[in-house]
Amino acid sequence: MDSMLTTGFQATTFGQAIQEVNRMINWRLSDEPVGPSTDPEHVDQEFRASTRCLIFLGFTSNLTSAGVREHIRYLAQNRMVDVLVTTAGGIEEDFIKCMGHTYLGDFQLKGAELRMKGLNRIGNMLVPNSNYCKFEDWIIPILDAMLKEQNELGVNWTPSKLIDRLGKEINHPDSIYYWAHKNGIPVFCPAITDGSIGDMLFFHSYKSPGLRWGEGEMWISFPAFF
Questions:
Q1: pTM score, two decimals?
Q2: What is the pLDDT of residue 18?
Q3: InterPro entries, per this entry (predicted)?
Q4: For residues 131 and 140, what is the distance between their CA atoms, to the nearest angstrom?
Q5: Bridge partners of residue 221, in order along the sequence
Q6: Which of 5, 36, 51, 68 is most exposed, with minimal Cβ within 10 Å?
C-alpha cells in the first residue's frame, strides 16, 4: 500500500482491467466445449489444456509518466503479457525516468514558476530539465550505432526493433522495456515520432543523415519525413 503515495490511477477502471487480465491469464482452450465445428487438430485434450490467450496490453503515455509504470514493468518482468502497445510518451518517459529522479509535486503548481526552476510538471510529478538532457546524451550514440549497423550489416530498422534496442541499452531493472527486451516481449508504437524520440531522430538526421526505418516495406528517411 505504500506505493499508493506515488501512484496515479482511476480505481474503478484499473480494477476492471485487472479482472480482464486475470481472465485472460487463467483461460485455456479446454474451458470451451468441443462442438461439431471444432477443428480436428483442436480436439486433443493436452493441446486444449496448453492453449492460452495471447495477451496484448495497450496503455497511454500518462500511465508511464505519472501513473502505474511499476505495475506495467512487473507484468513485463514476470511475462504476464505477450505484447505491449503504447504511444511515443509511453516509450520515452520510461527511459527518461531511468536518467534521474522524478519528484512528487502538486497538480496546482504553476507552470511558469516551475519553468524558472528548470522543472516540468506531468500531472503531479516534477521532472527536472536535466533528465531530458541526459536522455538526449544517451540516445544519440545509440542512433549512431544503428546507422552504422544499417550501412555495414544491412539491418532494417523498425519502431519495434528500435524500442527493443533501447531496452537492451538502458540495462536498468526499473525499465519496462528492459524487461520486454530481456523476455522477448514485442512492443508496438505506431507513432513513435510523436515525442522526444522523434525530436532526437530529427536532430540526428542533420548530424548523420541516412538512418532509415519503418514497418514492412514502408521506409522513412529523415528529415524528408518531417
A1: 0.82
A2: 81
A3: Deoxyhypusine_synthase (IPR002773), Deoxyhypusine_synthase_sf (IPR036982), DHS-like_NAD/FAD-binding_dom (IPR029035)
A4: 15
A5: 212
A6: 36
